[in-house]
């Protein structure tokens, strides 16, 4: 599904990613952990194609296609979805209107007609139930005045609507209380299938109790310094990151 | 949204001014320049009674003594008033029984404007009095309106057919000598619309007028007078498009609204005069005086979407004379490239318990300058007056400007005045967020701008709202690189 090879990326001439290799197959869930400033969010932004980052070296390949020349929206049309750590507000644009626009733009790019209104409504109903969202929520302006938890739930709602091939969840657990975390995680789990892949970026092991990863990678100082299975997350929870930092500098 | 994505895409691809075409219809044009003879000639051409000629001459004499205002936050090369032709009428004043008899080129123009009279006749209950270069050439739905006693016709026709009404009301809200451009308009106005709604009548359809400048070098001086008698209601739509021209075109209209006791007037405008090209060349100068008078318990709402003109100078205002009267102003002003707009409103509270609401949304892009200028005035007699003003500005890019000039004059202690203002910028983060969801930048801007403008767009009648939304998108295309 996704193959990242020797990825180096800069912002304002400062190197943030210093050679990342990562392979994610369909049906897998990968967790990327690491201390603050290790480059986790940068990795997410670079995969999504944010233009302020310069890719100096290496490649990102989605289903055999190099993404280098593709704009963020084209990557989205190919099935990449990023759940933002800090979702932006768009005053006056309802959640429903935004999601409708997003879906129809992607369909248009794939040469499809707009989704019929009744189908859209049905899907909205299903997916909002999946995330236990109040219907009133859907008519509110996108993220405006939303609590941290509501913003994150809204991100996952959009993911459910967009049905991406590759979803990257950037710190989706931050700002969530335990009930909201459970609902969001349940939602994500229900969206898992053999044809899609999920990359979960998180500080804490807590989210991984609910979304159980197949692989865990530790990112430190722009590099993946250790990879393992879910047990690695537990080990990190217990010991912190310092031992890895030491290992990495040795 | 009533239009398809495909249509929208096409719209967005249209880089040049959409209505930039020119119709070659023989015109009857007066020589350039302005003096008493020209004023008299205009009046003669319109076959006006003597009192009207005198009225014009008084205005002209006053105008000669006046100076062009310079306080607005705009800079432009002043028009040479002696280099303008003040009258131009389509040559064959038509009296058609059917559309087949109408000049096909004219019909074609209507088609390009998106107004099919034929359709209009059948559809939607919109009566259209189309002003084509100063003379009204088509009036529909007259019969239906006549049954209710509603008069909706060109101002020239009204001067002929209903002189008592015109004489009684013309210039009562915007006096001849009100300001430089109002005086000029009073002297030379060649056409415009007149509307009278009798006591207690609710106008059954939205009344609309399409304006259009069509002759090179002719200024257009429209005069609109809407009188809503006691307890009546009318919704009036005004939409403007103009062909692209290299030299600046002057547009100085006057609109007067009179809402008698318990009457309500809703006046909506979508203004799309040619804004000039990307280098700031050409474009219409739009110097407009719009004012409404509210008697007891009356209400006037102005809603405007301003996307066009090189220079705009416009303050639709309400004089809240009667007790319990209400004034509203909802505005979206978009400026792009080198456009300049200085627009806002005046709410003059004279009566007791009068209320006013001002919602202004300014969107600036390119190197344009967008100013809100508003006056809220509460007189000493106006007990318990209330005003709420909200001015929001949205900036796109780093080279444009948004300015707010709110004036508040309160002479009564019981008044409650609120003013809120915000300035925001379309952020790269917002754009990236949309991009990540598969929405390209052009569409993302349209989405953000429509969201920003929603409170005002919602005030427009349905068919106008769709048109306005499209206009916003067209006006801002290419504004974020």
Overview of the molecule:
The complex is a heterodimer of chains A (250) and B (481). With 250 residues, chain A is an alpha/beta fold. Chain A is built from nine helices and twelve strands. Chain A has helices spanning 40-48, 72-77, 95-109, 117-130, 148-162, 178-191, 206-210, 230-239, 242-249, and strands spanning 2-11, 14-24, 29-33, 54-62, 65-66, 80-83, 90-94, 141-142, 166-170, 197-202, 215-220, 223-228. In chain A, the strands form three sheets. A six-stranded mixed beta sheet of chain A has the order 6-9-10-3-11-12, with helices on both faces. A four-stranded antiparallel beta sheet of chain A has the order 2-1-4-5, with helices on one face. In chain A, strand 4 (54-62) and strand 5 form a beta hairpin. Chain B has one domain (5-476). In chain B, the strands form three sheets. In chain B, strands 5, 6, 8, 10, 11, 13, 15, 16, 18, 20 and 22 form an eleven-stranded mixed beta sheet that branches. A ten-stranded mixed beta sheet of chain B has the order 4-3-7-9-12-14-17-19-21-23. Residues 8-23, 91-96, 115-128, 133-139 and 211-218 of chain B have low confidence and may be disordered. The interface between A and B is medium-sized, with 36 and 25 residues.
């Amino acid at each position: 599904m996704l193959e990242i090879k020797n990825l180096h990326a800069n912002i304002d001439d400062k190197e943030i990613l210093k050679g990342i290799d990562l392979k994610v197959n369909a049906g897998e869930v990968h967790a990327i952990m690491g201390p603050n400033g290790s480059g986790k969010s940068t990795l997410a932004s670079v995969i999504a194609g944010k233009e302020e980052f310069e890719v100096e070296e290496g490649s990102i390949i989605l289903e055999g296609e190099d993404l280098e020349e593709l704009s963020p929206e084209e990557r989205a049309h190919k099935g990449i979805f990023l759940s933002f750590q800090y979702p932006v507000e768009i005053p006056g644009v309802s959640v429903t209107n935004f999601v409708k626009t997003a879906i129809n733009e992607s369909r248009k790019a794939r040469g499809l007609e707009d989704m019929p209104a009744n189908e859209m409504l049905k899907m909205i109903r299903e997916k909002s139930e999946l995330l236990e969202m109040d219907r009133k929520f859907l008519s509110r302006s996108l993220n405006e005045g939303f609590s941290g938890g509501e913003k994150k739930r809204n991100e996952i709602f959009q993911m459910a609507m967009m049905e991406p091939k590759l979803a990257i969840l950037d710190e989706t657990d931050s700002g969530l209380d335990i009930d909201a975390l459970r609902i969001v995680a349940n939602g994500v789990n229900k969206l898992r299938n053999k044809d899609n892949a999920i990359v979960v970026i998180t500080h804490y092991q807590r989210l991984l109790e609910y979304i159980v990863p197949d692989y865990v990678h530790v990112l430190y100082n722009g590099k993946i310094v250790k990879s393992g299975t879910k047990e690695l997350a537990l080990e990190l929870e217990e010991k912190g990151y310092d031992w890895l930092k030491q290992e990495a500098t040795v | 949204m009533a239009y398809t994505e495909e249509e929208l895409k096409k719209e967005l691809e249209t880089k040049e001014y959409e209505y930039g075409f020119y119709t070659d219809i023989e015109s009857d044009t007066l020589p350039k320049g302005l003096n008493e003879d020209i004023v008299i000639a205009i009046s003669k051409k319109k076959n006006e009674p003597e009192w009207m000629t005198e009225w014009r001459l008084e205005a002209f004499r006053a105008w000669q003594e006046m100076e062009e205002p310079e306080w607005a936050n705009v800079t432009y090369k002043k028009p040479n008033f002696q280099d303008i032709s003040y009258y131009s009428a389509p040559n064959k004043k038509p009296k058609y029984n059917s559309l087949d008899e109408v000049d096909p080129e004219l019909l074609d123009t209507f088609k390009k404007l998106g107004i099919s009279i034929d359709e209009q006749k059948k559809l939607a209950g919109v009566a259209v009095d189309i002003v084509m270069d100063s003379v009204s050439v088509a009036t529909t739905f007259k019969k239906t309106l006549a049954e209710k006693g509603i008069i909706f016709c060109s101002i020239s026709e009204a001067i002929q057919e209903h002189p008592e009404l015109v004489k009684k009301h013309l210039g009562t809200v915007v006096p001849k000598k009100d300001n430089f451009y109002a005086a000029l308009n009073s002297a030379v106005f060649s056409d415009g619309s007149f509307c009278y709604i009798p006591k207690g009548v609710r106008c059954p359809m939205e009344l609309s007028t399409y304006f259009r400048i069509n002759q090179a070098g002719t200024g257009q001086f429209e005069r609109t007078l809407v009188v809503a008698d006691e307890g009546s209601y009318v919704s009036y739509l005004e939409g403007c498009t103009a062909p692209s021209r290299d030299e600046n075109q002057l547009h100085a209209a006057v609109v007067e609204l009179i809402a008698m006791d318990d009457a309500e007037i809703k006046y909506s405008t979508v203004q799309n005069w040619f804004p000039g090209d990307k280098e700031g060349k050409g474009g219409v100068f739009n110097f407009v005086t719009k004012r409404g008078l509210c008697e007891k318990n009356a209400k006037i709402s102005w809603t405007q979407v301003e996307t066009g003109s090189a220079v705009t100078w416009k303050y639709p205002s309400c004089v809240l004379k009667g007790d319990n009267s209400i004034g509203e102003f909802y505005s979206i002003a978009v400026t792009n490239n080198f456009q300049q707009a200085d627009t806002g409103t005046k709410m003059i509270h004279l009566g007791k318990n009068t209320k006013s609401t001002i919602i202004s949304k300014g969107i600036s892009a390119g190197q344009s300058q967008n100013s809100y200028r508003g006056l809220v005035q509460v007189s000493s007699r106006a007990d318990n007056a209330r005003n709420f003003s909200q001015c929001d500005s949205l900036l796109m890019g780093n080279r444009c400007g948004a300015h707010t000039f709110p004036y508040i004059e309160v002479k009564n202690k019981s008044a409650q005045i609120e003013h809120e203002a915000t300035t925001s910028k379309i952020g790269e983060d917002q754009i990236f967020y949309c991009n990540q969801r598969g929405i390209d930048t052009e569409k993302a801007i349209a989405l953000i701008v429509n969201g920003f403008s929603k409170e005002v767009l919602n005030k427009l009648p349905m068919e106008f709202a769709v048109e306005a939304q499209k206009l916003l998108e067209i006006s801002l295309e290419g504004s974020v690189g």
